[in-house]
Design goal:
This protein has 347 residues and is α+β, with helices and mostly antiparallel strands. It is 39% helix and 13% strand.
């Protein structure tokens, strides 16, 4: 394995340093970056551009209904401005870089929206993984994936999450899994046709040539499918793995998503509903069980009615009478001692 070049290491370090310096440290919340993003950053929408003529086809209109309006996947439908277009295109968010193009039907739409590895990614994030390093490899790079996993196991032992401030309203995690420090590695085979689009999303709009060349690479994914960056395995050394991982578990110093490095992948999930369900389950498990604590018996004692109360006589209460008696005895004893005490005479 070759060491990560100085230029790439410097680029990663510079990006992280700029993010850390974007907001003064005193303004940084105590929530880690990965959880702040999960709670507050919505996934950027991919653009599915279709020919204008398709809007008159009932089968395609019906096929795309679930993606319009409040669809679960982070994708929006657009009409192509090119009147001669005959194929649909899936474009990366915030760019015209094409990820896929072709005819659209139920068979071709399904792999655009999800894949087995993407479903596993969502499952791990909802289970509480801080971040998932997705390693896209050929058949001969399994040792590199093992190296990354070994380094992450080490980081789990020595790294810590920021101390949470319960008095800071801006530093309270939202609904979702309990806050935890946990890394995992998800392997994706570049030769797997079911994951080819996912691998292309992970590589990002600027590295689509990696797939054509068969370049193995790794990308840390967090929050609602946010990719911090992607690096060829041949250039990804242990310090770079640490830099990226520790940045994501550190204090969130820049709360604006667009000011942070990275891009999103397309995931077919309603994050708001899924996180609410996970948070509800976590709260139910954390609450003490009534059965485990044992039954609690409450005996209601009714207040006495006027007929049940003892009659009042107008006399003083016994404690008050006792205090008066003690005071009288003390006065009499003092007077007696004063009378019998010998009187000193001056010579």
């Amino acid at each position: 394995m070759t060491v990560l070049t100085r230029q790439r290491r410097a680029s990663l370090a510079l990006a992280i340093a700029l993010v850390a310096a974007a907001v003064p440290t005193t303004d940084a919340c105590t929530i880690p970056v990965f959880r702040f993003a999960l709670d507050r950053w919505d996934a950027d929408a991919f653009r599915l551009v279709i020919p204008a003529a398709w809007n008159t086809r009932p089968d395609l209109v019906k096929l795309l209904v679930p993606l319009r309006g409040n669809g679960e996947a982070n994708v929006r439908i657009e009409e192509s401005p090119d009147p001669t277009a005959t194929d649909a295109q899936l474009l990366f968010p915030n760019t015209d870089a094409a990820l896929w193009s072709g005819k659209l039907d139920a068979a071709t739409l399904a792999p655009l929206l999800e894949s087995p590895a993407r479903r596993e990614l969502v499952k791990r994030i909802l289970a509480g993984d801080s971040l998932v390093w997705v390693v896209c490899t050929g058949t001969s790079d399994s040792a590199e994936a093992q190296r990354i996993e070994k380094r992450l196991r080490y980081l789990e032992q020595v790294a810590t999450l920021p101390t949470q401030d319960p008095s800071d309203a801006d530093s309270q995690p939202g609904p979702g899994p309990p806050l935890a420090l946990r890394f995992s590695v998800l392997r994706v085979a570049l030769a797997d046709p079911a994951e080819r689009l996912f691998a292309a999303m992970l590589a990002g709009p600027n590295h689509q040539d990696w797939l054509a060349k068969g370049t193995s690479f790794a990308a840390p994914v967090f929050a609602k499918g946010r990719v911090l960056g992607a690096w060829p395995l041949a250039e990804l050394d242990d310090p770079a793995i640490e830099d990226a991982s520790l940045f994501l578990i550190g204090r969130c110093s820049c709360r604006v998503k667009d000011s942070n490095p990275g891009w999103d992948v397309l995931l077919n999930i309603d994050w708001q509903r899924a996180l609410a369900q996970v948070g509800k389950s976590a709260n139910a498990q954390a609450a003490p069980s009534a059965e485990a604590a044992g039954p609690i018996t409450v005996t209601a004692v009714p207040s006495p009615t006027a007929a049940d109360r003892p009659p009042t006589t107008g006399s003083l209460p016994w404690p008050t009478i006792g205090c008066v008696v003690v005071a009288i005895v003390s006065i009499l004893a003092g007077a007696f001692l004063w009378r019998v005490a010998p009187i000193k005479r001056h010579p």
